[in-house]
Amino acid sequence: MFIWIIVIIAIYYFYTHRNSDGKWLRQEAPSELLKMRYVRGEIDEETYRRMKEMIK
């Protein structure tokens, strides 16, 4: 009986911690997200610096 509970929990975790592409979801630090937005060109340098100061 105990093994079935473990299996059900594992299946639940597997399906709830993946996005629609099948990749694992992960939590990233706000500074990393900000850096990635800057690198992709979503925000300019001035916005990057201002937001970086705000999250410190």
Give a summary of the structure in a few sentences.
With 56 residues, the protein is mainly alpha-helical. It contains 3 helices and no strands.
Tag the structure with descriptive keywords.
3 helices, single chain, 56 residues
Report on this structure:
The protein has 56 residues and is an all-alpha fold. The chain has one domain (2-55). Helix content is 64%, strand content 0%. It has three helices and no strands. The protein has helices at residues 2-16, 30-39, 45-55. Helix 2 (30-39) runs antiparallel to helix 3. It is elongated.
User: What count of domains describes the coordinates?
Assistant: 1
- Largest sheet composition: none
The fraction of residues in strands falls at under 5%
**End-to-end separation:** 49 Å
Total beta-strand segments? 0
Average pLDDT for all residues: 83
Radius of gyration, CA atoms, in whole angstroms: 18 Å
Shape: elongated
Number of helices: 3
Low-confidence stretches: none
Helix content: 55-70%
List SSEs in N-to-C order: HHH
Question: Which class of secondary structure composition applies to the elements?
Answer: mainly alpha
